[in-house]
Design brief:
Largest sheet: none
Oligomer: single chain
CATH architecture: Orthogonal Bundle
Structural class: mainly alpha
CATH topology: Cytochrome Bc1 Complex, Chain D, domain 2
Helix content: 55-70%
Bound molecules: heme C
Number of domains: 1
CATH class: Mainly Alpha
Number of helices: 4
Strand content: under 5%
Length: 95
């Protein structure tokens, strides 16, 4: 039982550090945004006519800027997940 638990933990650790080779995950992006990105602005910045990002690349660039301001050291996958969340939930730009 103990051994089974330990190997389950080891598997979970491997999964956590697996290289980014999957589609962007909007739900994970939602969680990352909610946990980290509300210190300077809330979701209001992603809504309405005043918002500035006009492409998915521009959203991603802003996400990168924000995480760097916080010193989070996000991977490309982290940025892609949050960008996916923001585009699905707010911007709705075509790829
Ligand atoms: C240090 C303060 C700060 C933090 C932290 C921050 N942002 Fe921002 N963000 C800004 C400011 C200021 C702007 C608007 C001015 C600009 O374009 O830089 C902005 C703009 C944006 C935009 C573009 C909005 C538009 O006009 O279309 C996005 C997207 C964004 N931030 C996402 C994020 C995400 C995701 C995080 C968390 C990783 C984050 N930000 C963290 C300050 C911050």
């Amino acid at each position: 039982m103990r051994a089974a638990f330990a190997s389950a933990l080891a598997l979970a650790a491997i999964a956590a550090f697996a290289p980014a080779a999957r589609a962007a995950d909007a739900e994970r992006g939602r969680q990352l945004n909610a946990a980290n990105c509300q210190q300077c602005h809330d979701d209001g910045l992603y809504r309405g006519p005043a918002r500035k990002a006009r492409s998915i690349a521009e959203i991603a660039a802003q996400v990168r800027k924000g995480e760097q301001a916080l010193g989070l050291g996000w991977s490309d996958q982290d940025v892609a997940d949050v960008t996916e969340y923001l585009n699905k939930g707010f911007y709705r730009l075509a790829r």
